[in-house]
Amino acid sequence: MHDIPESAYPANDKPAFYALIHSQAQALIDPSLPTVANLANIAALLFYAYNDEPVSRQINWVGFYLSSAATATATASTPTASAAAADAPQPPLTLGPFQGRIACTLIPIGKGVCGTAAASRSTMLVKDVLNWKGHIACDSRSRSELVVPLVAGDGRLLGVFDLDCELLDGFDEEDVSGVSGVVDLLVAACWPGVNQASAVN
Fold first, then answer.
1. Most buried residue among 122, 170, 171, 184 by CB atoms closer than 10 A?
2. What is the average pLDDT score of the chain?
3. Residue 136: what pLDDT?
4. HEC string for the chain
5. What CATH number did the domain enclosing 121 receive?
6. Is residue 3 included in any domain, yes or no?
7. Number of structural domains in the chain
8. pLDDT at 89 over 90
9. CA triplet 81, 154, 39: central angle to 5 degrees?
């Protein structure tokens, strides 16, 4: 069992907040455990860190959508297999571990904020989801969204880490940097041999 010491999260210092989150994530993530267990703990860590006093940022959803590559048993593919996969239709992202209200279970690649981040392998920072064409509304309370892709070293998409906020402009570049650091830890630990920094615009 992995425990982390209880700490007071700084409410008005995002670099300090994410430095603490990063150290706690390092303590929590265990490569010997199934990937789903690590993803579940990270979703819970961030959800409650954002929402507990004194931070209270009204983050209403934190979780993962995973690609078929994330659960593949092979850690490498042959050139022939890669070429065939490139020509085949991409299966949708599938709901993974999360904290929040009931969510969409499947998201097509290229659709919505999550699907767009997946298709482009780049981070999406949406300040107002109601004015973002093609937004998929799983929770009507969401007003802004941050999605960071999980990308393997060979370019394979593993999934996305999705965060929703009830406030307009609920995320900024400091959040992008902080969340991306956690994603990098997960990719390194949960998909060994394919470590690569998360894709950020």
1. 170
2. 87
3. 80
4. CCCCCCCCCCCCCHHHHHHHHHHHHHHHCCCCCCHHHHHHHHHHHHHHHHHCCCCCCCEEEEEEEECHHHHCCCCCCCHHHHHHHHHCCCCCEEEEEEEECCCCCEECCCCHHHHHHHHHCCCEEECCHHHCCCCCCCCCCCCEEEEEEEECCCCCEEEEEEEEECCCCCCCHHHHHHHHHHHHHHHHHHCCCCCCCCCCC
5. 3.30.450.40
6. no
7. 1
8. no
9. 105
* Bridge partner residues of 63 (DSSP): 98, 162
Question: Quick check: is 4 in a domain?
Answer: no
The Cα–Cα gap between 143 and 129 comes to: 5
Q: How far is CA 56 from CA 69, 135, 136, 169, in A?
A: 35, 25, 25, 15
Residue 90: Cβ within 10 Å count: 17
CA neighbor of 45 nearest in space, from 64, 68, 65: 64
Confidence at 193, pLDDT banded by 50, 70, 90: low
Q: How far apart are the C-alpha atoms of 136 and 177, rounded to whole Å?
A: 24
Q: Please check whether residue 195 lies inside any domain of the structure.
A: no
Place of tokens 């593993």: 158
The tens digit of pLDDT for each residue in 115-167 reads: 999 999 999 999 999 998 878 878 788 999 999 999 998 889 999 999 999 99
Q: Is residue 172 part of a domain?
A: yes
Per-residue pLDDT tens for 34-88? 999 999 999 999 999 999 999 999 999 999 999 988 876 333 333 334 444 555 6
